[in-house]
Write a structure and sequence with these properties.
Blueprint (H helix, E strand, L loop, with lengths): L21 E20 L11 H6 L6 E9 L3 E6 L12 H19 L3 E6 L9 E4 L2 H9 L27 E6 L5 H10 L4 E7 L2 H4 L6 E6 L6 E6 L1 H24 L5 E3 L5 H12 L1
Parallel strand pairs: 3-4, 3-6, 6-7, 7-10
Antiparallel strand pairs: 1-2, 4-5, 8-9
Helix pairs in contact: 2-3
Organism: Methylotenera mobilis (strain JLW8 / ATCC BAA-1282 / DSM 17540)
Pfam families: DUF58 (PF01882)
Protein name: DUF58 domain-containing protein
């Protein structure tokens, strides 16, 4: 059964897959596809159904020519989900619940495209109980993703992201990294470098109540992004401005880092709209 929060979107990888399995993406293997690769002799590719009469008549060696196409193949799809303490922040909804929706939509979209899907969750380490390897079993994916609703851990760091690259495929895949990225920039850079064989889509979860919709004057409750513990802060205009400036500086630093790897981040608030991801890939392929 497909959960109501799993909303598919359309994606297309911007490279040729080297998988040997038939799928919906441009590939490098010869086979049944629509991308013309060239002509070869019937002896080299014995498929008379693809005989090219015009090229056969032109061949100076009088060999029967057939048209060869690149096969459309599958590609591995990964959802990397941050379940550290900072993801417990709750504005209108909890960040981790938004992450659950995003991960389920990725799993559903991969299933619709015929691609393999893997979920990898981490805090201090990779959490294998709520992760699974690449497979076509979308129901298993939904069942594993649903477990994100039960995570309420505080004082959980994010160092496990450094372990994630070893859980990825050796073949180039599409990797959605779902996090609020409240971690040292050096850690983000180290992880991106370790995953450089893949195409990364950073999905940044920032709730407006973290830095924009703050009290102008009075007490407010905030979650410390490092410990996950709630703190009470007395706000005044100068304190509020400091929060806003800090997030703007952080966003600029993240975008500078992502651009060095030729990635563009997607920023989400308290609501996930799958069309946003569809438009992202439309722009990527244009």
């Amino acid at each position: 059964m497909i959960p109501a929060y799993a909303k598919p979107f359309h994606y297309q990888i911007p490279w040729k897959s080297n998988s040997i399995h038939y799928g919906g993406h441009r590939g490098t293997q010869r086979g049944l596809g629509f991308e013309f690769k060239g002509n070869v002799s019937l002896i080299d590719y014995p498929d008379p159904r693809r005989m090219d009469m015009r090229q056969t008549l032109r061949d100076p060696y009088e060999q029967v020519q057939v048209r060869v196409f690149n096969q459309d193949n599958t590609t591995p799809i990964f959802a990397i989900c941050d379940v550290s303490s900072s993801m417990q922040f709750k504005g209108a909804v909890r960040k981790l619940d938004v992450a659950k929706e995003v991960a389920a939509s990725i799993a559903y979209s991969a299933h619709e495209a015929g691609d393999l899907f893997s979920l990898i969750c981490y805090s201090q380490t990779v959490i294998e109980d709520i992760s699974h390897n690449l497979n076509h079993n979308v129901q298993q994916s939904f069942e594993t993703i649903e477990q994100l609703s039960n995570i309420h851990t505080m004082r959980a760091g994010c160092e496990g992201i450094l372990e994630v690259p070893q859980y990825l495929s050796q073949h180039k895949g599409l990797v959605f990294w779902i996090s609020d990225f409240h971690m040292p920039l050096e850690m983000v850079e180290q992880t991106l470098s370790a995953m450089s064989i893949h195409h990364i889509v950073p999905i940044v979860l920032w709730d407006a109540r973290e830095y924009q919709k703050l009290p102008k004057f009075g007490f407010g409750n905030m979650i410390d992004p490092e410990t996950g513990l709630q703190k009470t802060i007395f706000f005044r205009e100068s304190v509020r401005d400091q929060f806003i400036a800090a997030f703007e500086a952080r966003k600029q630093a993240l975008e500078t880092l992502f651009s060095r790897f030729d990635y563009q981040a997607i920023y989400l608030g308290d609501k996930f709209e799958p069309d946003l991801l569809s438009r992202y890939f439309e722009q990527l392929s244009s």
